[in-house]
Amino acid sequence: MTALVIENLNKVYTDAYSGEEVTAIGDVSFTVERGEFVSVLGPSGCGKTTVLNTVAGFVEPTGGVVEVDGSPVSAPGPDRGVVFQSHALFPWKTVLGNAVFGLRMKGVPRAERERRGREYLELVGLGGFERKYPHELSGGMQQRLGVARVLANEPAVMLMDEPFASIDAQTRRRLQEDLTRIFEERRPTVFFVTHDIDEAVFLSDRVVVLSGRPSTVQEIVTVDLPRPRTWREAVDLPEFRDKVARINDLLSGGAGTGGGARVDSDSPVDVV
Ligand SMILES: Nc1ncnc2c1ncn2[C@@H]1O[C@H](COP(=O)(O)OP(=O)(O)OP(=O)(O)O)[C@@H](O)[C@H]1O
Ligand SMILES: [Mg+2]
Fold first, then answer.
1. Which UniProt keywords apply (predicted)?
2. Does any ligand 1 atom lie closer than 6 A to the CB of residue 84?
3. CB-based contacts of 269: which residues, under 8 Å, 6+ apart?
4. Ligand 1 atom 18: the closest Cα is on which residue?
5. Structural domains for the chain
6. What share of the chain has pLDDT > 70, as a percent?
7. Which residues fall inside 5 Å of ion ligand 2, going by CB?
8. Can you give the pLDDT at residue 254?
């Protein structure tokens, strides 16, 4: 069953002052199956966030179709949960209060929401922190809480826009492994935006590689790494290295111009 359909998506912004038009998304099509982890990679400014925001219902497309579980997206809704790059937590609510916020909005009874809140906090490694406040958590823990809050809602699609970008490298690796474990246990449907090729390959079932503006899909790379995945094992597998190299090639402009001929160009595309 297909959870997310994006078909011929196009977005043109018009500058409010100059009237100048900016094509944020050229023509983008791909799907995400239920229980699949799909990442989107592409040069800075190619419209990754705009694609995610149209799926979230924050941005109205200029053209094309976005469907979640067979219904067209017209506004934000609880069937799509967003984990933001910065934590977007409520500072006046406890960790548990933050985790169950969406359930409260949906009218889930108190005992049930507490049970689910605790379960998902446990899952992301925040068991025991229920009564703390966000400012008492580290950046990595706040990001875990962002993940728990979305998971607790059990959305049809989980949307993540560079959720680990502002986190130190070591913590980021741990969060990536945690996210993989959670994905393997629960099989949510995930649409993940990143700049980080290794991260995309490590986490994903498929990676959608976008071109620079006006963006189109250059290639959809399937990753057949076995699960469960850990960094220690993944980095040594030829499949991991091959897929990283392939995507690197695509993003460096090597694709279609003689394989990796331009990978070592001295003006690499800004992808990291
Ligand atoms: N609200 C807006 N109004 C006008 N232009 C916008 C708006 N939002 C985005 N853009 C433009 O659309 C293009 C795509 O932006 P977007 O943020 O989607 O790219 P991105 O791929 O997420 O970039 P990054 O990798 O840097 O996060 C950019 O040129 C950006 O300046
Ligand atoms: Mg972005």
1. ATP-binding, Nucleotide-binding, Transport
2. no
3. 43, 212, 251, 252, 253
4. 47
5. 1-78+189-272 (3.40.50.300)
6. 93
7. 48-49
8. 56
pLDDT tens digits, one per residue of 48-78: 999 999 999 999 999 999 999 999 999 999 8
Q: Ligand 1 atom closest to Cα of 14?
A: 4
What dihedral angle (degrees, nearest 10) is formed by the CA atoms of 20, 211, 42, 181?
130
Ligand 1 centroid, distance to 45 Cα (angstroms): 5
Residue 239 has pLDDT above 80, yes or no: yes
- ω into residue 228 within 30 of 0, thus cis? yes
Q: Which ligand 1 atom sits nearest the alpha carbon of residue 195?
A: 25
- Residue tagged 């875990």 (tokens): 144
Using the mean position of ligand 1's atoms as its centre, give its distance from the Cα of residue 205 in Å. 26
